[in-house]
Amino acid sequence: MSRTAATSLLALSALVLTACSSAGGSTGADAGPPKPGGTLRLGISSSPDCIDPQQVGTNASLNVGRQLVDSLTDQDPSTGEIKPWLAEKWESNADSTAFTFHLRDGATFSDGSPVDAAAVKTSFDAVKALGPKSQLGSGYLAVYKGTTVVDPKTIKIEFSVPSAQFLQASSTMSLGILAPAAYRKTADQRCQGDGLIGSGPFVFESLKQNQEIVLAKRKGYGWGSSLFKHRGEAYLDKIAYKIVPEPGVRTGSLASAQLDAITDVQPVDEPQFTGNGFTEPTRPNPGVVFNLHANVTKGVLTDEKVRQAVVKGINRPEVTNTVLTPNYKPATSILGSATPFYADLSPLLAYDPAGATSLLESAGWVPGPDGIRTKNGQRLTAKVLFSLVFNQNKSVLELVQQQLRKIGFDLQIEQRTTAETVQVTQSGNYEYLWYNTTRADPDILRNLFSTKANNRSKLPAGNPVDAPLDAQSSTVDPAKRKPAAEEAQRAIIEHGYSAPVFELTQVLAHGPNAHGVGFEASSRLQLFDAWVSGS
Amino acid sequence: MTRYLLRRILQAVFVLWAAFTLSFVILYLLPGDAVSAKLGGGEAGLSVTPEQLAVAKAEYGLDDPLPLQYGKRLFAALQGDFGRSIATGDDATNMVVSALPPTLAVTGFALVLAVLFGGGIAIAGTYTRHRWLGNALLALPPLGISLPPFWVGLLLIQFFSFQLRLVPALGSNGFESLILPAITLAIPTGAIIGQVLAKSLRTQLAEPYTEIALAKGASRLRVHFGHILRNAAVPTLTIAGVVAGNLIAGSVITETVFSRDGIGRVTSSAVTAQDIPVVQAVIVLAALVFVVINLAVDLVYPLLDPRIRHRETADA
Predict the structure, then answer these.
(1) Whole-number mean pLDDT of chain A?
(2) Which residues of A touch B155 (CB under 8 A)?
């Protein structure tokens, strides 16, 4: 009994000491130069069902898969430019239907086989063969015609229609290259790590669902991306992803040094880590921001003025300031600010209740007895469907609901499961959809808005977004792509096809011992330059 | 006795079949399906076309007519094969079986704690001659039942792991990691045991045989433990099934709070993903546990209470 008491006392005094030293403000900055060795214990919020980067679509999975595979190219997170990785250089034809990559020398898979043209072809063909099982890759390779081995170091990848997006896709882990031997295992086996043989800076070691995934350093690695901050092998001996679903336990474990870093810090937990020795790296996700995506064929949303009024009636800074934290940015376009060719359209997205009201008045919507407007007996109301992929979704939508009530618009919130959302989305039987999606390329707009793709707005032919969306997909030339992408973003907001609200942001936190935990261009973890001090 | 046993086993088989069938029906009544949940998860729902979705469903046999799917699944399940998890690609039986040991470790430990504390409180509360102490002790079970396990678990972690750093907050490694989740789980379970036992102890105390025994000069201690407890144990044993259910349901919460692997976590993620093979494997396993426990209880009854033994023999 007295021993327990003594232990408790010791522990308490240790806590006090830690508290003091933290208050002293020892930050990662004075940790000295990076030092190889050690294990990074990283707390993540959900168990990645599958860790094969070619198959998966969730952050939990991609954050693991990224470390195992190299890609043909890499994307600079700050500029969006495509840089060399396994490919030293590349060229594309005039209409972006064919891309030729020249591979670097010396790269090998962890089973010893070389990363050559034949291996790259095998890998791309395999992703295509996975079909919808390759959740992101199937989209990137939707119009894939095939890969030709030009010579052992050169491959030519062809598409049936212009696919400027492919250059960026070639930098993602979803099109990361696996060894030919990997495909002797089934897709299900690769999911569990069996046969997951890449050429990346880490190799798969073990996976225990709901518990832990361990990756180990690839010895002799020396073909890192041109964007990596150091050459040669990764610093960390091991990465241990610990699955900690409860956010409070995640933050507590980090604060009590049982973990070195955590992902998915909840807005309510963020203040714990400000100014006390903990670092909080954040990065907004590129791609389409969280938005109310209108179906222009349904109910009151057929009226363009109503859709425009909704865009004006949302107070975005209030959303980020109250329900979220300053780490989240109010939307300034349909694309997130971290997306290449994003256009700042903040004047169009300013809170303007007066403007919204006059739009509605001019369209004949007059306030009813309960404050909700009506026109010829029709109430000014629309449903929004959402699922809880992001924890704060419900609170955000409830606030937006209150804001829109002020202009006399009744937004009805309906929560569904992910599976149900998929079905409803495909059936087209919805008014507003609430979602976001991560992609560091403006082509994501074509996926969602083009009449030739998913067309979530149900736009008719001859609408003002199809042409610029086609234009941006047919050239990798920034001088032509940028204006086209901008035109598409502007048209989407001006016609109220979507009402953007806020940018999803990845919020990490790491303790005093973890350093260099970074984001790649799609805001997923890149741990090549990460290292741990102490211990 | 053999006929009694045979009847119970037949009942057990019926319960297992009903659990299997009911879970199948319910999973199909729910809107959405596992393939949509899988392919629509994360960012991916965007690129999946209805045609691709149909192909994927066909691959998992989800486009077969319902009776055929049901027949196939039932036939395979009879051989212990529940199919592959749609979410993880792992063998469903394997997922459930490998999640069993960590759950059994916690629930087993929790059950021991629950019996010790629940039983102890009930016995002490009814034995003491101090009315206030008895009342105070017997007020504990209702309190224990009303405490949300989620909150208790977080509180325990906060204090013993984050503040005092005596035990790890995460994982299923070693005895240390068992302590807090077991306590969390033992509180509501012990409370049920305590409440039921205390009530039947009080009933027995009011029986004439108690007074007779005391009048014949038996000590209070001997009467309490020798006579009353034995009789009071029968109704307490009846709730073993309830307690087992409580432990399994509670494991969903404790395993989430304490970041442990186990049946609870497997179940909650499988239900969210509408992962039929895994959900069915879990449900049949859970039903099996209930059936076995109830069967064991029914077989132990006659040993405790000769009246049941005679009645059953007379029936047969």
Answers:
(1) 91
(2) none
